[in-house]
Each structure stands twice: as C-alpha cells, then as structure tokens.
Amino acid sequence: MRLATIAVLLIAPFVAQFVYKWWTNPLRKIPAAHPLSHFTSLWINYVRWRSVENATLRRAHEQLGPVVCLGPNEVSVNCVKGGIREIYVGGFEKANLTESFNWYAFFTNFGEPNMFSTARNKAHSTRKRMLSNIYSKSVITASPVLLAQVSTILYDRFLPRLACAFSKETPGVLNINPLLNAATMDIISAYIFGLKSSSNLIDDPQQLSWFLDLYNSRRSFNFWPQELPALTAFVKKWFGYRLVPQWVDKANKDIENWTHGMCESAAKVMSEGVANIADAPIVYEQLSGALAKEAKKASQDGSGHSFLAASEVLDQIAAGFDTSGITLTYVLHELSRNTQVQARLQRELHTLSSPILLSSSPTLPDGKVVDALPYLHAVIWETLRLHPAIPGPQPRVSPPQGCLLGSDNSTYYVPGGVRVSASAGLLHLNEEVFSQAHEWKPERWLELEKLNEDKRRDMENRWFWAFGSGGRMCVGSHLAVYQMKYIVAALYSNYTTAIVDDTGIEQSDAYTAPPKNSELLIRLQRLDS
Ligand code: HEM
Ligand SMILES: *[C@@H]1O[C@H](CO)[C@@H](O)[C@H](O)[C@H]1NC(C)=O
Ligand SMILES: *[C@@H]1O[C@H](CO)[C@@H](O)[C@H](O)[C@H]1NC(C)=O
Ligand SMILES: *[C@@H]1O[C@H](CO)[C@@H](O)[C@H](O)[C@H]1NC(C)=O
Ligand SMILES: *[C@@H]1O[C@H](CO)[C@@H](O)[C@H](O)[C@H]1NC(C)=O
Ligand SMILES: *[C@@H]1O[C@H](CO)[C@@H](O)[C@H](O)[C@H]1NC(C)=O
After folding, report:
1. pLDDT at position 14
2. Residue 505 lies in a domain
3. How many domains does the chain have?
4. Percent with pLDDT over 90 in the chain
5. Which residues touch 215 (CB under 8 Å, ≥6 apart)?
6. Is residue 403 part of a domain?
7. Is residue 184 part of a domain?
8. Which of 231, 368, 489, 512 is 20 to 30 A away from residue 325, measured at CA?
9. 357 C-alpha vs ligand 6 centroid, how far in Å?
10. 263 has binding-site annotation
C-alpha cells in the first residue's frame, strides 16, 4: 500500500508534465493521422521504417483534409494556399536554428556540405547564385557546348546501342532501364565535367552495372541515418552495432572516388586548355572559379575547396541522373502502352526540319525547337505529374514565430520548430485540378487554353510540383527537361516500342521513387520496317 503511494507520487509529476505538454501543444487541434500521433513519433517512424509513407499519408489526407498531424512535432500538408506556398515559397529553413536535426545532412558528400544538404537558407543562396545562371533555361537551350555533347552522346553512343539490340537472338528486345540511366549520367556529367572528363556508361556496360549496383545497393539503408541519426550513432558507439552495414560506407567512398577522378580530369583540361568545344567543363569551371574567389575574399588559401566543389557536383550527378532516368523509364512505359499517343508523338517528331535519324548527318535540331514541340512537352509533363521521381515528402522546419497552415474552414496555428512537409506525389493527385488524376493523359496539357486563367495556373504553376518551388527548388530542372526531350525524340524518331515484360513497374514508396524492379523489357521496332 505504502509502496503504491510512493510509486504514484513518483510517477505523477511525469504524467502531469506529459498531459500539460500535450494540452498546450497547438498541434493537438490538428486531425491526427493515427491515434498515437499527438503523443509520440513512434508511429510515423514505424510507417517510414516499413516504407509505406506515401500510401499512409495519402489515406490520411483523403480522410482528414489538407493538414494532418503525424507526430507531436510534425505536420503534413496537401494544399497550395496555406500549404506549399507558405512553407516553400515562404522559405522555411531545412533545419532548426540549432541545427540539432537536419534531415538533408544525409546528402553530404566527402564530409562537405552542398546546396541540397545545407540547412541554412543564407549559406545556401550564396552557393546557388554561383550555379543558377549556367542551369537557367535560356543558357541551357542555347548552349553550343551542351548541344555538341548531347549530339555526340546520342549519335555515337545511344542510337548505335539501340541498333545493337537487333543483333541478338531476340531482335529488338532489351532492358531499357539501365540504358536510360546511362544516357542521363553521360549527359549530366558531360555538362559538368566536359565530354572528355565525363562518364561513358552507355558504351561500358561493365562500368554501368558497377555504378548502378553501388548506387542502388544503398537505397534500403536510408531510414536509420536519415530519420534517427542520433540513435544510429549511439547504437554504434555504445553497442558496436551498425544499423547501416559497413559496405554502404564503402559504396559511398567508391562513388566519391569515381566523382573525384572526373573532377581531377576536368581540372587538367582547364589548365591545359580546351581543344574541342564539347570538352569544356561548363559547371565545374564555373563552380571551382566561384569557390576560389569566395575563399580568396575570406582570405583562406583555396586548397580545401576541391572537395567542396566535388561534394556539389556529386550531388548534381546523383540528383540528376537518377531522377531523369526514373522519369524516362515511365515515359517509355506509358508510350509503349499507349500506341496512339506514341504514333502522334512520332508524327510530331517527323515535322522537325532536321529529324534525329540514325541515317542522317549528326546534327541535332536546335534546343529551342525541340523544347517547343507541344506534344513532346505534354508527354514529359504528364509523366512528371503522375510518376514524380521525387514524390516526397520534403521536410522543412516552421520558423521561430510559428505559422498558420491550412485555409478556409481549417486553419491551424503551428508553433516554431515543427517539422512540416508536402509531397508532390499527393499534390499531383488532386482531382479538382487534374481530372481523372490517376490516368496518364498527355492531352490535358494541350487543352490548357480552353481553361480559364485560374484553372490554368492551378495546373501549370500551383499544383504541379515535380521540381518543388521557392528558393530551394530543383536547380537542374531545365537540364533535366532538355535531356529527357532529346532522348525521347531520338528514340521515337526511329523506333516504336512495345512492352515485353513490365513486372514490378510500380513506383517504390520512397523519397526518390524508382520502379520496384529495375528491369523494363521492351521490344524496339524500326519505324521504316
Ligand atoms: C526529372 C528530373 C528531376 C526531378 C524530378 C528533380 C526533382 C527535384 C526536387 C523535387 C528538388 C527539391 C527538393 C527540395 O525541395 O528539398 C530538387 C532539388 C535539386 N535538384 Fe533536382 N530534379 C531533377 C533533375 C535534376 C538534375 C538533372 C540536376 C542536375 C543538376 C538536379 C539537381 C538538383 C539540385 C542540386 C537540387 C538542390 C537544389 C537546392 O537545394 O537549391 N536535379 N530536384
Ligand atoms: C502513392 O500512393 C498512392 C496511393 O496508394 C498511389 O496511387 C501512388 O501511385 C503512389 N505514388 C508513388 C509515387 O508511389
Ligand atoms: C579511385 O578512382 C581511380 C580512377 O579515378 C582509380 O584508378 C582508383 O583505383 C580508385 N581508388 C579506389 C580506392 O577505388
Ligand atoms: C467549408 O465550409 C463550407 C460551408 O460550411 C463547406 O461548403 C465547404 O465544403 C468547407 N470547405 C472545406 C475545405 O472543408
Ligand atoms: C527544433 O528545436 C526545438 C527546440 O530545441 C525542438 O523542440 C524541436 O524538436 C526541433 N525541431 C526539429 C524538427 O528538429
Ligand atoms: C530512322 O528513321 C528514318 C525515318 O523513319 C528512316 O529513314 C531510317 O532508315 C531509320 N533508320 C534506322 C536505322 O532505323
């Protein structure tokens, strides 16, 4: 009896504190995705650990509306007004002032920060200013260097590789997924390092599978270091137990070393002079120059900065090749199932004054001309909508003074320091903006003129979020669209495609969401036969 009283007296303050904290937490008023959400983050962590976050958030928003509480310090939004406009265009930081927890620190390379992993907006925008010009749409679509690089990669590597598929026992049948990843890696690394210093994964299947194996092997080990970095470090330090196996660290080191090799090669080209315009390392030269200038201003010697540049460019090749490869895989999959769309696209491609044919002289049509093809644009855009390569969520932290989220009937005050996020994969399924949202219908992007101004802007600008929005939006979106358009144009100018085996084509439930199976078997057929 006396023991019980003592126990109650001991526990009571904790219970009281818990109840008080819960009672004074404004998030208590936001609908909970799970009965435990207002009390503990165990549930949402369990959801993430099981890789069912996309499906879970979708159900939660369907049932509870555009603002949902996921944990005692976490909210998910699924709306533009009172949602992505406030959080992303409004420039919420990627981490707290104390930087106690930065979800994006996981994307650090060489132990050095890059744009994507940088927590603070101020440091981030200094870096972004160094790069935004060379990645702008006007520079990308008019760059003679990039055009020369893409021309070589498509005519000398990509189209011949497709032609090779006919010299096999099953003519025209191939697993297109790795080839698409190779093409995007070769193009992005060419723009960064120059053609001479970049990868040639299309022509080197061995290196391609070496790289893709390294890159993909790490995917399933994101949860612990990204969501619970302190626990992960604690368990390793005190129990000697690795939640992330050692070979994942080794894979990261190998990828870093590979990237560093390309950096050194580009630096050599810069010092020896560029002989062929395609060898100009556009991004690396701009970035290393700007970093050196910055270091000089801060009167340090520039020596430590080779790894800053390397960290930045590794982020760009990783962010760029994978996402574009995923998108292209779905473009090909959808086109292969929709023969009428495919035929219409081919008719459009044949209107090009210099068509991209295997037999023609290797000059690509102008970047602006390819960019302006309306049906090709619609096909790419619709794929980015229905199969966003990064469906999210994109976590940010509410500012110290707090904020209001949601709109109309349901506006909630959210205090400072709360993890808030939205997901492209969910925004893109809004039936009011994208009718028959689960259907792949490129035509919807051609019918924009028929809509009133407000509806059109909803579709084009407000709810389309494949590249995010605000100051931390994708810096490579124009390069991504440029290369995807050329690759699709080159392929469908000469071939039709049909599906042979698409088992496991569904997107995985992850931040970056590749198909569950990395094989997509298609059959190519020459257009003239
Ligand atoms: C279809 C292709 C692509 C998709 C869907 C995509 C998507 C995204 C998204 C959603 C973000 C924003 C993340 C956030 O808000 O935190 C982002 C950021 C970024 N992307 Fe892309 N991306 C693509 C291609 C590329 C390419 C080709 C590059 C190459 C340069 C690239 C480089 C980056 C970088 C450096 C950032 C960080 C930007 C910053 O922090 O300011 N991406 N991307
Ligand atoms: C997310 O989940 C919904 C519902 O389960 C599904 O329709 C959609 O395809 C998923 N999106 C991604 C990118 O996995
Ligand atoms: C690092 O990359 C270079 C090529 O750039 C290669 O020769 C070397 O073997 C690699 N080192 C390790 C440890 O993988
Ligand atoms: C807001 O309330 C009005 C009237 O009570 C209702 O018609 C409308 O559907 C509600 N909107 C939302 C987003 O719940
Ligand atoms: C931000 O910092 C506050 C105060 O230290 C903390 O309570 C909160 O959990 C932090 N939020 C995030 C998302 O790290
Ligand atoms: C590519 O397509 C064009 C026009 O459809 C055709 O003339 C040419 O022979 C094709 N080349 C190959 C190798 O299929």
Report:
1. 82
2. no
3. 1
4. 78
5. 251, 255, 318, 322
6. yes
7. no
8. 368
9. 6
10. no
